[in-house]
Design a protein that fits this description.
The chain contains 19 helices and 16 strands. By secondary structure, it is of the alpha/beta class. The chain folds into four domains: 111 residues, 3-Layer(aba) Sandwich (Rossmann fold), CATH 3.40.50.2300; 178 residues, Rossmann fold; 61 residues, Helicase, Ruva Protein, domain 3, CATH 1.10.8.60; 63 residues, Arc Repressor Mutant, subunit A (Orthogonal Bundle). The strands form five sheets. A five-stranded parallel beta sheet has the order 2-1-3-6-7, with helices on both faces. Strands 9-10-13-8-14 form a five-stranded parallel beta sheet. Helix 6 runs antiparallel to helix 8 and helix 17 packs across helix 18. The longest helix has 17 residues. It is globular. About 2% of the residues have low confidence.
């Protein structure tokens, strides 16, 4: 099923096009500006883009040229068509050109007439691992395991430290499997408010709760026919884990407020940065759900165990920065030893940030001395809190979280690392506690 991205600052136009495109067999995402379009492309690269030439935050044609989406086709839209704009659109590689107000018959004809190139199985196999960059033995073993499990229907549990690329590995499994041409939908379970996560996963009917002014399509619906990636599965509330287990066992789900079951034609890939057995023993993950998810567990190697992949990845990130900013900066000769010596507790994410910071600071040559690796203070050693017998688990968690934040001088990212949770989970907890930055924890 081809995927369409509609980029227009008028919601009514986006909604109209989405309805028609769904009838023509497309999955659809919409964006009101270039920034939102970039976010949507990172979530799921489109096969076709309907793109307004004039957007609130930039020029549509320039945005298209800068993105250089391989294999995607673009149809430009404009309310002020001229010969020059049409010629420019064709030069930019447009598959077609639509004039506003858009003729519905013309729109249907354009969507039905888009020609997609035949699938080259060899190129597809190569592209599955395009984002899994590295030559180390550990990464080669990971690729081998992905190739083995991808064609099956087995549920996969990815285990690895933060920043090791679990979402990239999940997408590789999706692309290497039979559902490669269907949606890949990533969901960060720790980034959704506990009060909304059930509605976000399964959707809800209009009027099912206060504020439900219209029906909402959940992630299971959006991933139909494809793959649903549940990241940070241990952050999912226990009561929702029961519902997820039921869906995995029965193959059906019910939207919030709904009466009729829907079939979940979805492959599940889950991930956690915790030790899953330890998470089970601590009550963060149901044991029955753990066994249902870990039909085929895969461990992602940390960067420190990937030999010289750290140098290859650092060069890749620098090449991307040079290409996007039209520069020719380079690493100092002695930086390779620095890259090898550092343990990289934040893994690939930390390495990317390190290269980016040094790129910003450097004139032409990136030196290891330009920027310290560690930029946060450690909490005071020996700090203790008192948890009285009989205190509820929720109150104890609140006390531990707020004290850890105070010991981290209010640096939320560092407090999250100390607590072993994601930053977004910490933000959700602080919002639940009514914590404000100006308050003392």
């Amino acid at each position: 099923m081809p995927h369409l991205l509609v980029v227009d600052d008028m919601p009514a136009i986006c909604e109209l096009i989405a309805d028609i495109a769904n009838d023509e067999g497309y999955t659809v995402a919409t964006a009101g500006n270039i920034a939102q379009a970039q976010d949507e492309i990172r979530v799921l690269p489109p096969d076709v883009v309907l793109l307004d030439i004039t957007l609130p935050d930039g020029d549509g044609m320039q945005f298209w040229e800068d993105m250089a989406l391989r294999g995607a086709q673009v149809v430009f839209m404009t309310g002020q068509p001229t010969v020059d704009s049409a010629v420019s659109a064709l030069r930019a590689g447009a598959a077609d050109f639509l004039r506003k107000p858009i003729s519905l018959r013309r729109l249907r004809g354009v969507l039905a007439g888009v020609k997609f190139p035949p699938i080259d199985e060899k190129n597809r196999a190569d592209n599955c691992f395009a984002k899994l960059k590295g030559q180390s033995r550990a990464l080669q073993l990971l690729r081998t395991h992905i190739e083995k499990v991808a064609p099956t229907t087995a549920t996969v549990l990815l285990v690895g430290e933060s920043g090791t690329g679990k979402e990239i590995a999940a997408e590789a499994i999706h692309l290497a499997g039979p559902r490669f041409d269907q949606p890949f939908v990533p969901v960060n379970c720790g980034a959704i408010s506990p009060n909304l996560i059930e509605s976000e996963l399964f959707g809800h009917q209009k009027g099912s709760f206060t504020g439900a002014d219209q029906a909402h399509q959940g992630y299971f619906d959006r991933a139909q026919g494809g793959t649903l990636f549940l990241d940070e599965i241990t952050e999912m509330p226990a009561e929702l884990q029961v519902r997820l287990l039921r869906v995995l066992e029965s193959g059906y789900f019910t939207p919030v407020g709904g009466q009729q079951d829907r079939k979940a034609d979805v492959r599940i890939i889950a991930a956690t940065n915790r030790n899953p057995e330890l998470a089970v023993s601590r009550g963060l993950l149901r044991e029955d759900l753990f066994h249902r998810l870990s039909v085929f567990p895969l461990e992602l190697p940390p960067l420190r165990d990937r030999d010289d992949d750290v140098i290859l990845l650092a060069q890749h990130f620098l090449d991307e920065l040079n290409a996007s900013n039209h520069t020719a900066k380079h690493f100092a000769p002695d930086i390779a030893d620095t890259l090898r010596r550092h343990p990289w507790p934040g893994n690939i994410r930390e390495l990317r940030n390190y290269v980016y910071r040094n790129y910003i600071l450097a004139d032409n040559e990136l030196s290891a001395r330009l920027n310290p690796f560690e930029m946060v203070l450690a909490p005071q050693s020996g700090a203790e809190i008192s948890v009285p017998l009989g205190m509820s688990l929720a109150d104890a968690n609140r006390q531990i979280i707020l004290e850890t934040l105070r010991q981290s001088d209010g640096i939320k990212k560092h407090a999250a690392q100390v607590l072993g949770i994601s930053a977004k989970t910490l933000y959700n907890k602080l919002e639940e506690y009514g914590y404000k930055d100006e308050q003392d924890p």
